[in-house]
Amino acid sequence: MKLPSIIYGTAWKKDATTALVAQALAAGYRAVDTANQKKHYSEALAGEAVRASGLPRAELFLQSKYTFPNGQDHRMPYDPASPAGEQVRASFAGTLANFGTDYLDAYLLHGPSGAGSLDDDDWEAWGAMEELHLSEKARALGISNVGLGQLRELEAAKVRPAFVQNRCYAQRGWDRDVREYCLANKIVYEGFSLLTANPHIVGHPKTAAIATRLNATPAQVVFRFAVSLGILPLTGTTDEAHMKDDLEALALEPSPADFDALRAL
């Protein structure tokens, strides 16, 4: 699988989803993240933009998620009274229809059903996802909003996660424990809310000084720093100029001292 360098996230875009995804694809993005969860995503509208783009399927990285009933509103893509495995299969089929494709590059469990250890529903859902992977309809599996203990439990799975997607806080070492586990186990770590979760880093004078020297924006510096930590960044910007900025951030060349300064923050 050819991994993207950055992913366009479609959460909370509502009716603007089609136009924004089309804009992102036109700007050069080739990876789109969504979920079959109408509470926070308009997946069908994201799929509409992807289909209308005319881009070859092989050039795209399409990623979606199965969300448990406790993360949905009343507009569920499955019967909430059905077993977790059936919910996964129905949700996945809906996602394929939304994108007009017969496979996804990555399919994620949109967070465990609870905050503690993985329970029976988690394992049933993961088992159904493994079936989708083995049938080659889901090229890779992953999990989001996951803690280190839960991630370690998945070592017992038949198909272990290839992706983890978590919100990154600088105050927590940029999710250091989970991120380092991923690096050690060849799991791709996707980080979201890199800017919105860390306004004190984006607005810090040290970040501004680095940005000025590199003729960049503080946001670009944060994205490039995230890449240096082994993070595959997601951006959900709705600004066309920022879309281009975020793509261009990956080409910045901060010094080792710059990275050290940012890490110290």
Compact overview of the structure:
This protein is α/β, with parallel strands linked by helices and 265 residues long. It contains 11 helices and 8 strands. Helix 1 crosses helix 2.
Tell me what the structure shows.
The chain is an alpha/beta fold. It contains 11 helices and 8 strands. Strands 1-2-3-4-5-6-7-8 form an 8-stranded parallel beta barrel, surrounded by 5 helices. Helix 3 links the parallel strand 3 and strand 4. Helix 2 packs parallel to helix 3 and helix 3 crosses helix 4. The longest helix is centred in the middle third of the chain and has 16 residues. The chain is globular.
Question: Any descriptors?
Answer:
eight-stranded parallel β-barrel, 11 helices, 8 strands, alpha/beta
**End-to-end C-alpha gap:** 34 Å
Count of helix runs: 11
The tally of beta strands, per DSSP, is 8
Unreliable runs? none
**Content of β-strand:** 5-15%
Q: Using only CA atoms, what is the Rg?
A: 18 Å
* Cα shape: globular
Helical residue percent band: 40-55%
Mean pLDDT: 97
Helix and strand element order: EHEHEHEHEHEHEHHHEHH
Helix-strand category? alpha/beta
Strand line-up in the sheet with most strands: 1-2-3-4-5-6-7-8
